[in-house]
Amino acid sequence: MTGAKRKKKSVFWSKMHTPRCEDIKQWCRRRLPILEWAPNYSLKENLLPDTVSGIMLAVQQVTQGLAFAILSSVHPVFGLYGSLFPAIIYAIFGMGRHVATGTFALTSLISANAVERLVPLSSQNLTTQTNTSVLGLSDFEMQKIGVAAAVSFLGGVIQVAMFMLQLGSATFLLTEPVISAMTTGAATHVVTSQVKFLLGIKMPYISGPLGFFYIYAYVFENIKSVRLEALLLSLLSIVVLVLVKELNEQFKRKIKVVLPVDLVLIIAASFACYCTNMENTYGLEVVGHIPKGIPPPRAPPMNILSAVITEAFGVALVGYVASLALAQGSAKKFKYSVDDNQEFLAHGLSNVISSFLFCIPSAAAMGRTAGLYSTGAKTQVACLISCIFVLIVIYAIGPLLYWLPMCVLASIIVVGLKGMLIQFRDLKKYWNVDKIDWGIWVSTYIFTICFAANVGLLFGVIGTIAIVIGRFPRAKTLSMKDMKEMDVRVKTEEDGETLQQVKIISINNPLVFLNAKKFHIDLMKIIQKENTCNQPLDDIIKCEQNTLLNSLSNGNCNEEASQPCLNEKCSLILDCSGLTFFDYSGVSMLVEVYMDCKIRGIDISLVHCTASLMKAMNYCGNLDSEKPIFFESVSDAISNIHANKSLNKLSDHSEV
């Protein structure tokens, strides 16, 4: 009896422990994405492109690290640390395979407000003569990095808190026009902050509401102070960078490795400055001394957290939004998924842990991510390889950057922001698709310029929601049609009678950013279903979808009638008579549905479309010009499907 009881107990405990172990393993894979892709990493296929991409990325990380550290009002060496540690942490916790995390212009600009406010320049006279044991830097420099690290720490804590609250599911509120306008406005701010280096003039730190305009007012008032040498060197650097990068883009298919023009320019400018002694002869400002090595970790000053809470929220929101947009873009481009909530955790830990290592706030940057695209990176191994080269710069090459002119570094930053600045071209797209989205873009950009990136982001989200709420009461509802009016049958004869299956889905409500993503998910689920059909094979399968938009369901599709099944011969008809209005996100999702169906070999037709919807879809996507997809009625669409099948059958017989 005792042995039997022990056996039962062991079986009981094994049953209790086994699922718990599996749950832990699943949780680890979900929260540590590196455990998913690292074991399956192919050295033969991926190592070479990742190595090339990592080398090119390291050049960008070093140059942007130096520049964004200065933009954040701290010593340049801390930008190198910010290019190293956040990239390693994101590679472990992040899901974006082509996202390059490190120093970021927008977060640096936000943290600079806290640094300049809490450590004013007037306090430098009291601390310059006193050096600390940390890299031989002055107390003044250490106070400034302490404030920047505190902003990074608190911003990361806010992001981790948002992860724990599962706020990643609320990212559907961040529409493409709002993100585009905010990042473009913030890039304009960064360019403005570099004007003093491009022109070689001394300028006090200017921030706050309308600070953008005050900076240019100061420049025009002191236009006689512009150093001609700095201006000419800046113009020459910008021209060289733009021309070489355009040539690299045009001939990237013919050449395997693009010319690292940033690196070449840094070496050439530093050498020329050293040989001609530009710092003393012409008064050009240079980067200055870069100390070697990495200091031991130190906690950021916790006593100033309450003083930097505004900047911390700005870093948390703006950094996450810009990074998530890049992660989602890469996931869409390379066909993998990204968990919005996991990205909160990845970027939160990148900021929290790095703040103990003298790092400024971090996020993903568009220029570095685009560089990974163009150089053919496959995984986050490219970012890890770039960290090796950044480490070499920190311990060996850093002191050689002393003679790098600040005007050249500013030119590299301005050209690197090209991807954000050319988003002005989106205005034409939004005007043709939905003029309300155009208005949201313009107003968000203006608020970002006049105030700050976080203010512009908040205004854009609130304005978008308010406009949608205002448009809904005027939306017409769709009355359910008589099923008999839609009852048609389509048969094809090929080795007997088989069903030419047609699915008719009606969209009964507006399609906007609030329900566009859920609409796509539910529609794809219906298309993927392969359940056994209970209806006769010669009946049309009709599935009425009611995309009721509300805050809880976010546009759930509730399927009525019997469960349909899909076979190889399937056509989809979307009845858009109930689509009373739409925005850019809704039209983009319809185009994405069309492209997904095209890839799956499913014929898709849209009926009862308004002229504005057809114009918007033709403008947003590359629709098939050979096959018509817009029809006036469901019967016209079904007749077209039947005619195409008859034509295909006749073509097959002709080939035989």
From TrEMBL:
The chain crosses the membrane at residues 66-93, 145-165, 203-220, 226-245, 257-277, 304-327, 379-397, 402-424, 444-470. It is a multi-pass membrane protein. It is found in: Apical cell membrane; Basolateral cell membrane; Lateral cell membrane; Recycling endosome membrane. GO terms for cellular component: apical plasma membrane; basolateral plasma membrane; lateral plasma membrane; recycling endosome membrane. Residues 492-641 form the STAS domain. It catalyses: D-gluconate(in) = D-gluconate(out); nitrate(in) = nitrate(out); hydrogencarbonate(in) = hydrogencarbonate(out); chloride(in) = chloride(out). GO terms for molecular function: chloride channel activity; chloride:bicarbonate antiporter activity. Keywords: Anion exchange, Cell membrane, Endosome, Ion transport, Membrane, Transmembrane, Transmembrane helix, Transport. The keyword Cell membrane applies. One of its GO terms (biological process) is iodide transport. InterPro entries: SLC26A/SulP_dom, SLC26A/SulP_fam, STAS_dom, STAS_dom_sf. SUPFAM superfamilies: SpoIIaa-like. Pfam families: STAS, Sulfate_transp. Belongs to the SLC26A/SulP transporter (TC 2.A.53) family. This is Anion exchange transporter.
